[in-house]
Amino acid sequence: RQPYFVKMELHRSKLDMNREICEAAQSDQVAKDAWNGYIGKASEFSDEVNEEWGRGVFVDFHGMKEKGEVQLGYGLTNDELKNNADLGSVVDSGTLFVRSLVDNGADTEDLIRGPHSLGTLLTSAYPATETCPSEQVKSSDKDKYWSGGYLSQRYGSKDGGTIDSIQVELASKIRKNKQTSTDREVFAAAFANELLVWMQDWYGSDFAFGGWKLIKKGA
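Structure (tokenized):
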């Protein structure tokens, strides 16, 4: 099996997919058609995953201007992340895009920035650009932290259901190296690998490796 993949080819200045249709398309019919096509395909894939597995994870990739950090959005604000208390004691699971995992017994602190969190795994695998939140970077000190938008809310488990979601904001130095694509390729391999490790930890090996192969544990 392969992961489902949906990509918006229009530039964000033409259509912002991470918004409701009225704000995203600004009454432009071409943009509306593109928005409906994307949402229709994403919904179709989400339904297929849910039907086959009864659970899943939706990963929403974006790029940002920030050069020095990869940001994962779970529905938490940076102020909440800055709280030194255990997240499970201060955060309502109903605000999280990974609510299904938490409601089924996952520890919120460990899931978001513990040793088995996706951010911690990514920072260990790709230390050149640290990931927040993680055990290494518990909250962001950057100008802006992106907590997650429309797509993560729509396709995550915040409002119920068993498919979780994470918004991924990629640092510009990973995406836009003018001399070489090495940074992008190395990060992509690290992300794919650590996502599988993360899925194995939180969903089980049968779900995580249902047709995928681990490139190299810890790579």
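The first strand starts at residue 56 and ends at 63. Residues 211-219 have pLDDT under 50 and may be disordered.
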